[in-house]
């Protein structure tokens, strides 16, 4: 009986991992939208991906979104610059289209805004409070493009 239960748990875990990869976009956007503590799960997923591959564009995008959403000034510029560096090397059809049409320029504008408009500690606290509310993942369309390209298969 114990072996049967262990076998069942292993199958469920493996199925969940596979499902998470197949539905990466859905899982990530749902976690992000929930706000609050669920968003920390998105950061954990990003960090896990980056621990395996420091050039994982999905991890870099998610981490950049996290730093910007929670106004982590010391990390925003580095995160966005790294996402731009790696994003420029991705050659899959859907990602390239989305990246070139909109996202790359948005990332560069964010870098300019952060550099030109430093926030006071009070403004940062206000933004952090707002960031806990449910709202869509800022770079959801990039993650969706990666999924359409088979990046998570």
Q: Could you estimate the helical fraction of the residues in percent?
A: over 70%
- Please count the beta strands (DSSP E, at least 2 residues each): 0
- Euclidean distance between termini CA atoms: 34 Å
Biggest sheet overview: none
What does this structure look like?
The chain starts with a helix and ends in a 5-residue tail after the last helix. Helices cover 78% and strands 0% of the residues. It has one domain (2-148). It has helices spanning 2-22, 24-34, 38-52, 57-69, 73-87, 93-116, 121-131, 140-148. The chain contains 8 helices and no strands. Residues 1-20 have low confidence and may be disordered. By secondary structure, the chain is mostly helical.
Helix/strand layout:
Blueprint: H1 2-22, H2 24-34, H3 38-52, H4 57-69, H5 73-87, H6 93-116, H7 121-131, H8 140-148
Helix pairs in contact: 2-3, 2-8, 3-4, 4-5, 5-6, 6-8
Question: Could you provide a short overview of the structure?
Answer:
This protein has 153 residues and is mainly α. The protein has helices at 2-22, 24-34, 38-52, 57-69, 73-87, 93-116, 121-131, 140-148. It contains 8 helices and no strands.
List the main descriptive attributes of the protein structure presented here.
8 helices; mainly alpha; disordered N terminus; 153 residues; single chain; 0% strand
């Amino acid at each position: 009986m114990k072996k049967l239960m262990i076998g069942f748990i292993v199958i469920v875990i493996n199925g969940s991992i596979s499902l998470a990869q197949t539905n990466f976009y859905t899982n990530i956007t749902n976690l992000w939208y929930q706000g609050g503590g669920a968003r920390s799960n998105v950061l954990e997923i990003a960090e896990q991906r980056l621990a395996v591959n420091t050039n994982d564009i999905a991890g870099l995008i998610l981490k950049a979104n996290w730093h910007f959403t929670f106004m982590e000034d010391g990390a925003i510029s580095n995160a966005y610059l790294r996402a731009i560096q790696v994003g420029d090397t991705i050659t899959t059809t859907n990602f390239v289209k989305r990246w070139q049409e909109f996202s790359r320029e948005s990332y560069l504008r964010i870098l300019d805004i952060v550099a030109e408009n430093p926030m006071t500690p009070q403004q940062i606290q206000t933004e952090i409070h707002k960031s806990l509310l449910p709202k869509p993942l800022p770079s959801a369309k990039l993650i969706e493009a990666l999924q359409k390209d088979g990046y998570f298969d």
